[in-house]
Amino acid sequence: MKILIVEDDWELNRGIAYALQKGHYTVCCAHSLQEGREAYLSEKPELVLLDVNLPDGEGFAFCEWMKDKGRAAVLFLTARDLEEDVLRAYELGAEDYVTKPFSMKILLKRIAVILKRNAEAINRMFDDGFLHLDFDQAKATVNGREQSFTPTEFRLLYELSSHAGQLLTYDVLLERLWDSGGQFVDKHALAVNVNRLRKKMEVGNHKYISNVYGMGYQWLG
User: Fold this and answer.
1) What DSSP string describes 39-83?
2) How far apart are CA 135 and CA 147, in angstroms?
3) Tens of pLDDT along 181-213?
4) 14-28 pLDDT, tens per residue?
5) Longest Cα pair distance anywhere in the chain, in angstroms?
6) I need a surface site. Which of 36, 56, 74, 197 has the fewest CB within 10 A?
7) Phi/psi class of residue 44: alpha, beta or left (left: φ > 0; alpha: ψ in -120 to 50)?
8) Number of Cβ atoms within 10 Å of the Cβ of 6
């Protein structure tokens, strides 16, 4: 995970970077809005730690600028503790707002929670340019055209795509997909669902599901 720190206090910036690197994060640092924008575009971080008061403007402006640039999360680190500032940060889409001074241990824990939550949210989607699956909205497109899948097919797609490259045995899939729904489905029904999925989304060289004979299925996407 890569984290961008936009903080004009050089000592604090360096201290946070050191703690993050010890936690096995990749870190890039900036000390102004301009440096932050350049680092954001070149480094593509998953999370931005952002001060509000910066030499060339406010962190709120940076947060607004980020909206159309990607999916990075924002955690504000600032001495400004006014209620209107906190509310503005959340209205702009910030994940968290931490006021100075703060505990480094608590900051690291908050960062871990944000990154885990965002990783789980990203895993709720699949998009390779040809096949787009939005599992939260239960929507799918194949080669730019909307495609309909049954709830069972969507559950099967999610289990396979979220474990890309991993062999999921027949028993594992049956347990994950149907036991919780109170439905009884055997291996034959599973094969029928997989074949139906292939017909709907596998075109030409776009292959997504591999049948490991006698064992289970594997996501190739």
Assistant:
1) HHHHH--SEEEE-SEETTEEHHHHHHHHTTT---EEEEEES---H
2) 13
3) 444 557 787 888 899 899 999 988 899 999 998
4) 999 999 999 999 999
5) 65
6) 56
7) left
8) 25
In single-letter form, the type of residue at position 207 comes to K
Task: List the one residue out of 124, 31, 49 whose CA is nearest residue 94.
Answer: 49
Quick check: pTM over 0.70? no
- The neighbour count for residue 10, using CB atoms within 10 Å, is 10
Cα separation of 66 and 62, whole Å?
Answer: 6
Distance CA 142, CA 148 (A): 10
DSSP string, 170-189: HHHHHHHHHGGGT----HHH
Paired tokens of 112:
């871990």
Residue corresponding to tokens 């000390």: 31
